[in-house]
UniProtKB/TrEMBL annotation:
Belongs to the enoyl-CoA hydratase/isomerase family. SUPFAM superfamilies: ClpP/crotonase. Signal peptide: none annotated. The keyword Kinase does not apply. CDD domains: crotonase-like. This is Enoyl-CoA hydratase domain-containing protein 3, mitochondrial. It comes from Psychromarinibacter halotolerans.
Length: 261
């Protein structure tokens, strides 16, 4: 049984966290598999959208606390192992927005600590209406400082800080209201609704979506004037694309575009 499974549905790839016994924790092995899978998808032009989901009772419960505790046996008390772990996890979280394809989190059950960070790192998220979201490390004495990075870039800062210091969980509806997820659906519709959203995006011009996703994350960290200058140049790049020219012509001529990408 693979720890991380990949299921392709046409131009949509579904990555499935498949470690239900530890609630799909981001163990060393899981992080390694995610790193490899994302690297492969980065080069795969047949895939236009990626879905990230999980098996069992939870989407992802965060880091593997048993592995972290075992690392304390090292002479340095685990300092080097912890630094390496958080660095590897940060690289995975950054690889998701850097991926050319949009990534949709399909969330059921619990998304806690680094699992909530994983949802926040995705470009979009669809949640079952019974899903719960938390950065609850503070409840065991470990402030969720690295999950805070992605979370505080998704929801308003006061709500993010409250979650971090209280350890309280968000309902799926509250997560949608705050902007952590896009859509909330019935549990038995979660897979179908997420796939429908993925297929809607996959039907768009792939090169335009790739250009647009990169520009989205580039500009969001820039001052206003720099963001406009950058995205203006990106729009020029997009306009000079042969398929964009064809798409505009097809719209004006009221016909289906003949896209090559």
């Amino acid at each position: 049984m693979a720890l991380l499974e990949r299921e392709d549905h046409g131009a949509v790839a579904r990555l499935v966290l498949n470690s239900p016994n530890n609630l799909n924790a981001l163990s060393d092995a899981m992080l390694a598999d995610l790193t490899a899978a994302l690297a492969a998808l980065e080069q795969d032009r047949t895939i236009r959208v990626v879905i990230l989901s999980g098996t069992g009772r939870a989407f992802c419960a965060g880091h593997d606390l048993k592995e972290m505790t075992a690392a304390r046996a090292a002479p340095d008390g685990g300092a080097a192992a912890f630094a390496d772990l958080f660095d590897r996890c940060a690289r995975v979280m950054q690889a998701i927005p850097a991926l050319p394809q949009p990534v949709i989190a399909e969330v059921h059950g619990l998304a806690t600590a680094a699992g909530c960070q994983l949802v926040a790192s995705c470009d979009m998220a669809v949640a079952a209406d019974d899903a719960r979201f938390g950065v609850n490390g503070v409840n065991i004495g470990l402030f969720c400082s690295t999950p805070m990075v992605a979370l505080s870039r998704n929801i308003p800062r006061k709500q993010a800080f409250e979650m971090l210091v209280t350890g309280d969980f968000l309902t799926a509806d509250r997560a949608r209201d705050l902007g952590l997820v896009n859509r909330v659906v019935a549990p038995d519709q979660l897979g179908a609704e997420t796939l429908a959203l993925a297929e809607q995006v996959a039907a768009k011009l792939g090169s335009a979506v790739r250009i647009g996703k990169r520009a989205f994350y580039d500009q969001i960290e820039m001052p206003l004037a720099a963001a406009y200058a950058h995205t203006g140049a990106v729009m020029v790049e997009n306009m000079l694309n042969r398929d964009t020219e064809e798409g505009i012509s097809a719209f004006l001529e009221k016909r289906t575009p003949d896209w090559t990408q």
